[in-house]
Write a structure and sequence with these properties.
323 residues; Jelly Rolls; 2 domains; 20 strands
Amino acid sequence: MGFTQPQLLKAACKDYIWGGTRLRTEFNQKSDAPKIAESWLLSCHPDGPSTIAEGPYAGTPLPEYLRLAGTDALGADCRKFPDFPLLIKLIDAKDRLSIQVHPDDAYAAAHGGGFGKTEMWYVVDCEPGAGLYYGFSRAIGKEEFRRRIADNTLEEVLNRVPVHPGDVFFITAGTLHAIGAGILIAEIQQNSNYTYRIYDYGRLGNDGKPRPLHIRQALDVTRTAPPEKPARPEGMRESIGGSLRQLLARCDIFTVYWLQAGEAKLTADEKSFHSLICLDGDALFLRSGQPVLSIRKGDSVFVPAGYGDYVVKGDCRLLWTFV
């Protein structure tokens, strides 16, 4: 039935007001909207599921494909999650995003259901001098937090970090954050779309009205302290066979590596599916020396658990993610 084969995915694209055009012009994403702010490359979320891009199941939404494939395609390590656990995006922040925060699983379950949102950012590219907000510059109390939201002085106590390609930010649920203008990011996150907007610089949405804020929820969930982790990958780059690898982040939800393919030999065992996101270049996906897929910049490949040994061969840089 083809359910044991890797699948090239077509992303769901979002045209938020702060987005740009790089995901279309450089990363081969398709949308009729003038802007592509986000490309949901691996998604089973109802707000924007990926679809199978080619082959006998072309056009099938990923959630439906996985329902047909069965739980073995996700792997044993996914059985602890009630739903598909991950959402992987490319984000083109032409303009700055709102100052925001995400809830944890417990708060999300009590206020609508589903997952909370812990996420990881990998800075793919950025303009000179670009920066973002990552937690607070010092610990503050909830009352000061409330007051600074009310009098528009919140930015005075935020931790602004200059960014460079290759930086990694691990953003646990409850960490206040905001992507600045001129940054292109790959985001690996829990399968959630809960965002509590705290401050939006007074701008208007596509409907000409101020975008809604979620102050009460933000006061409930925000950890008013400096970030817990530094803005760097967890591991060092290492040469393994014909490839370079670097551990970017690991938690109980996902593990993410940066991978320079060359000739990368990987194994999808019964524990977890693999996600491959091509950030640059192109390559062939091989099994037993035979080509299975061609991969280019902006592509997303779902490799089912239990697929076994495969090789990514070519001059490309990838994000390799599994549970």
